[in-house]
Amino acid sequence: MSIHIVARVCPAGFENMSTLHFGSALLPSGWTDNVQVTVTDATITKVTAGTAPGAADERHPLAIPGIASLHSHAFQRGMAGLAEMRGDTADTFWTWRETMYRFALDMTPEDTEAVATLLYVEMLEQGYTRVGEFHYLHHDHDGAPYANPAEMATRIARAAEIAGIGLTLLPSFYAHSSFGGAPPHAGQRRFICAVDQFARLVDATRSAVRNLHGANVGVAPHSLRAVTPDELAAIVPLAEAGPIHIHAAEQIREVEECIAWSGRRPVEWLLEHAPVDQRWCLIHATHTTAIEIASLAGNGAVAGLCPLTEASLGDGIFSTREFLDAGGRFGVGTDSNVLVGVTDELRQLEYGQRLKRRERNVLSAGPGISTGRALFDAALAGGAQALAQPIVGLQAGARADIVTLDAAHPSLAGRSKDAILDGWIFAANAGAIACVWAGGDKVVENGRHRLRQTAREAFNEAVRRLVA
């Protein structure tokens, strides 16, 4: 089943301009009343505070910026909930991974596009306006490259275009099954590339996103399990000015095997041997020492936290409070996409810290500071850095990624300023998002994406066959 794109078309030489008026909006300077935002094509071109609405303005009571899911494996949305039966042995990340491999081996390019399209529709309905797609499902079922080496990446780009979400595409280099260059096993055959092959894949990926407004490309060495030091050194320059993402220290077993291979823990090894700086995002970094936490924060890298997936897989809990105290930056990602929601990730992040420390409001920035606001501000800034977006938020020059909230929602009623974020993140559950603009295009209205139904039908058709 194909999905029709609803495109905005402007005559040559004409700009597509609109104005929005918000009773209260979260600007970089803080909550501000009576804000008029001018959007020209896909960009915010003017923000005026303290002004009455114009006759042509579209009016909404509450607005916040859209934020990024900095880490997603789109194809895994299709297997959400399929790995919840205990096997004969202890069920762990490693047993879940075998289920994931089996699912990935069956997917066609058309399946991948259908699954990713619904995922991106759901992300937009939940307040995500950009996704960092850590993409490693590259090849055909037998592991042979497609005629277009970026066939699967092109399907991801197509899904982002259909849904309207901003895209940072991160082709992943995957060559080995474990540390020290161990040969890959059969379940990984669709992921595997040689360095030269991967360079061609990255070039083709750039071509695939060339016509998507605001899209960019980085690289993602999958993990120290999957790349050798020489391969890592060879592929990092392929990122050019784009971001570099890598899974690190997600599991205790991974840490133990890295020590056996190198004498160093994964984050420790990266900090000593790789050019880790502000362009880097270390995904998970769950099992880190105090020294690693301080060094990672000092290098300016982003910690890519995926609290729902980390809980689902039994990974553990990142030392977020300690990382923030050291000046660290984090963003959130939906990773396995077992559940998709800005508030779900931020709430789980805070609740994990509460369970770990047996305290409340752990990630608040200090006395009298809203925990919801602290979480939202950190995730907005960290996600932007991790996906190489220099300007975000409700300000001139930023991509017009805007979320309006329903002021009549029971968990938002009567609230103002930061209490709105606290109510949304910790109490609203569902239904609090009214509208979403992504790149200036209003894709969600009354909480519903304009392509929800057709995207669901295409997804269901694909997944019924895969599950069968």
Automatic annotation (TrEMBL):
Gene3D superfamilies: Metal-dependent hydrolases, Urease, subunit C, domain 1. Residues 17-60 form the Formimidoylglutamate deiminase N-terminal domain. Coiled coil: none annotated. SUPFAM superfamilies: Composite domain of metallo-dependent hydrolases, Metallo-dependent hydrolases. Keywords: Hydrolase, Metal-binding, Zinc. One of its GO terms (molecular function) is deaminase activity. Residues 63-442 form the Amidohydrolase-related domain. InterPro entries: Amidohydro-rel, HutF, HutF-like_N, Metal-dep_hydrolase_composite, Metal_Hydrolase, Metallo-dep_hydrolases. Its cofactor is Zn(2+). One of its GO terms (cellular component) is cytosol. This is Formimidoylglutamate deiminase. It comes from Bradyrhizobium erythrophlei.
